[in-house]
Amino acid sequence: MEVKRGIAVSPGVAIGPALVLDTEGIRITHRTIPADQITDEIQRLLKALDETAAESRETRERFTARLGPTLGNIFGAHESALDAMRKPLEVLIRTHSYSAEYAVSSFFRDYVKQMEAVAVRFPESDRAEVRRRTAEFVDIEKQVLTRLLGQNSEPLQQLTAPVIVLANDLMPSDTADFTPRTVHAFATESGGNTSHTAILAGALEIPAVVGIGRFLTDVSGGDIIIVDGSEGVLIIDPDDATIARYEEKRAADRLRADRYDSLRDKPALTLDMARIQLFGNIELSGEAAHCLDRGAEGVGLYRTEFLYLNKATDPTEAEHYEAYRSVVQTLGSDRPVVIRTLDLGADKFSSVSKVAGGAEKNPFLGLRSIRLCLQNLDLFKTQLRAILRVALLGDVRIMFPMISTVDELRQCRTLLNEVKEDLEDAGIPFKRELPVGTMIEVPSAALMADILAREVDFFSIGTNDLIQYVLAADRNNENVANLYNPADPSVLRLIKGVVEAARKEKIDVNVCGEMSGEPLYAPLLVGMGIRQLSATPRKIPELKRVIRQLHLQEAEQLAANVLNMETARQVGNYLRDHLRRILPGAAD
Predict the structure, then answer these.
(1) Is this prediction's pTM over 0.85?
(2) Choosing from 184, 196, 290, 578, which is the catalytic residue?
């Protein structure tokens, strides 16, 4: 038995036989053709390109219908790339008498070398995006060569029993046929939590672990594998005791899901009838249905930066509109949808990251998020136009991220008004009045919350960034991971100050970071005055269960006690003891 650890990107436990995807690729030898065969060779190439593009188009339509346009756009980018390469490939065949296979191989290898040469000029954080794009071009090459060589490698379409997919990495063409029915989980040697495959796993709710490092040489097809997507663990050839333990864990998860299912349509009320609103955080339009399935009252955070992934160009206004429309129509006109404008940061990638200047020495303190948008007004206004238009369909709200000064917020509001005037002048229907909010995720914003509260209709506290900026600890840096702690008294005091500022101006305040999805912190946040929590949809039933066991007065006393504590350790122990008392076993 071997235990491997990687990055947990989609929770859950799966046990089953391995399907190891081919990692060898296709090797092409140098070959030229006689002059009288060049025309036929070009036609053979164009046919292969047409067939590959047609499959990408069909897959894009299928993914868009199933999971929304964001994932579908991955294959739209493939279509665009295939179209752009027609002429240079034809020139290679005419000029050098290359075979179609060698022309394709030569073209792609030269392109990959150019991308890799460019990558060395960027910091490591941005090189991951170049590696991802390089891998996708290799994926397109493999698809075209497969058609030229008459090969067919589509094991997922031929499955008759469920499997756990193992691979070095997974490309869009590999995952096109993933369904929870045939693929119970996957694990990869490479990849990160922003890859399209990780996003797909979350949307399908398939357990997944990526970035494990080399392990494929230790596995054969059919070997029994365990994937724990909650802990980021892959177990190869588990012994009987380990299988039994994970079977119990999987059964407990199912029982918990069944128990939570009974709470779906019940309100999140404390025992003394205080109402707490629970909303879902989503990245993909297809996840809106998960919010309904888990009993969310709406979407408290729609992260829109994933519209920019896997695209050579920035999304158009129509693409923005279609993604937002899908979410609003899924939820219905009476449930709120809070759309956060582009929050591109050092840990997120898109075509605009290079416009932003990828060589920044300290990107977390650099040109990111709202700062990026305010320096790319066409990009920003395109998104604002789509939000204003789709707001006619339901309860749509707009939220600006990473506001650090009052001037930044006022600039955003001025631009929003300019976009309204542009739409009005063009005779395009839009919603003139819609709630406008700001994220509180920078210490300066938390300290100025009393002023910012006069400028907006609601706050949303982004605890992920707030914690790392307050404690100067990158949440992805294992060397300082011990410092990144939501229970730190400095963080809690800032949150309490934000809540008080919002209360004075009578505006809503929500918490939408990972902290809001942890049952451990729910009593504390409620006791501090939070009446809205926004979390990953699968967290909502568990939060609701905790809230329905709370007494408001007890939660308020708990918060008062915690705010007098001096260390995160004291706070954490106190909260765990409280949670065990109201829900035995919940804090273990």
Answers:
(1) no
(2) 196
